[in-house]
Amino acid sequence: MYRIAKILAIILGVVGLVIWVMIARDENPAGSGMVDLMINLGYYMTIITAVVTFAFAVWQLITHPDKLKKALISLGAFAVVLVIAYAVLASGTNINLDSLAQRGIVVDEGTSKMVGAGLWAFYLLALIAVLSMVFAGVKKILNN
């Protein structure tokens, strides 16, 4: 599967290079339709890359149960952070909805709570990342 993806990427890269050269040599590239072709090629390459990446990730999880276990534990920890951010930390009532409505911004308490939960989740995940780097650094220093 990796070889097929690699061959397909090389073929699409060569096609993109040929189209780019044709666009660069054209005096009116917007009128020739080549720009649209190049944009569509980029679009399809992005889709193919995403599908292949997802397929390889799923394949690795299926063929290595220990990696699947670690991935599920990580997803569970992420879900716990999201639940804590939404249920405990975000209130949704700490903004003036009337002043936003006067400016034409339609926001309700649910939307405000979701935005707050997203911010709190980001802060918690950033804190966890920093603490884990500090912990790893201290552990490395103490082991030497």
Automatic annotation (TrEMBL):
The alphabetized UniProt keywords are: Membrane, Transmembrane, Transmembrane helix
Chain segments annotated as transmembrane: 7-25, 37-59, 71-89, 120-138
Name of the protein in its database record:
Uncharacterized protein
| Source species | Robertkochia marina
What are the top taxonomic ranks of the organism? Bacteria, Pseudomonadati, Bacteroidota, Flavobacteriia, Flavobacteriales
